[in-house]
Amino acid sequence: MNSQTVSQFARQFSSKEQGFTLIEVMVALAIMASLAVALTLLVSQVLDARSQLNEIRANGPERLVDFLSRTDRQLSQLVVRQAHERGQPLNSSPLTLQNNNQELYWVAAGQWVLPLEDYASRLRLWRLSWDEEEQLLALQSSGLLDAADEQKWTQVDELTEVTGINWAFYRDEAWQNTLEGSFPKGLRLTISWRGEDYQRLILLPELIFIRSATPTKAEGNENTRKGLRRLRSRRSRGDDDE
């Protein structure tokens, strides 16, 4: 084999190793474009289905169930802790009805410890209030239990098209429409929503007492008496002799 034959064979082999032809590249791009279009349509259909499901959930009976379940969860964590606004008690009892029975107040201990400025607490003040004119039932919370001014409420959830509410409390083996008396074992909330009445029965927890950071007058007097007793005890043992 002479040098000319070897050179010709090398050129033929080199041409075969140069890569894809223009037609092959165009076919590959067409396939990739088709796959991209198909994937885009699939994602669009999934997003549309999710949007329709969320719309149905937001406007259907599931919306009412979600709102009542969230309210139930906070009431089930109720504790005995008095809150204040402008130096005055805001909730005179663990459950307090105000504003013609259109607002229910309570304090609940959440699962997570929340940082609040210079301290941390699991306690939050809750309010379930109904606006008759707006037909709006709102669940709100505040992390400041002893506010020097007005409470600053955070909107947690709301339910529109509520035309009426009614409370009932279970105690002494009967349902009563007042909170006067012993602490109830259960709460029944009746809501008129979109022309129909719905009821939610909520089992209230055993009371857990949480002491305020600011002692009451009686607590202060008791602390003073305990301090005097400790002082007399030390003096009787001679601990204070110099």
Verbal overview:
With 242 residues, the chain is of the alpha+beta class. It has a domain at 64-203. It has 4 helices and 13 strands. It is elongated and about 90 Å long. The model is unreliable at 215-220 (pLDDT under 50).
Shape: elongated
Strand content: 25-35%
The arrangement of helices and strands along the chain is HHHEEEEEEEEEEEEEH
Query: Structural class, judged by helices and strands?
Result: alpha+beta
Number of E strands: 13
Whole-number mean pLDDT: 79
Query: Residue share in helices?
Result: 25-40%
Which stretches of 5+ consecutive residues score pLDDT under 50?
Answer: 215-220
N→C terminal distance: 122 Å
Number of helical regions: 4
Q: Taking Cα atoms only, what radius of gyration do you get, to the nearest Å?
A: 35 Å
Q: How would you characterize the largest beta sheet?
A: 6 strands, antiparallel
Lay out the secondary structure.
Layout: H1 3-16, H2 22-59, H3 61-75, E1 78-79, E2 84-85, E3 88-89, E4 96-98, E5 103-116, E6 119-131, E7 136-142, E8 146-147, E9 154-160, E10 162-171, E11 174-176, E12 186-193, E13 196-203, H4 217-237
Parallel strand pairs: 2-8
Antiparallel strand pairs: 1-5, 2-3, 4-5, 5-6, 6-7, 7-9, 10-11, 10-12, 12-13
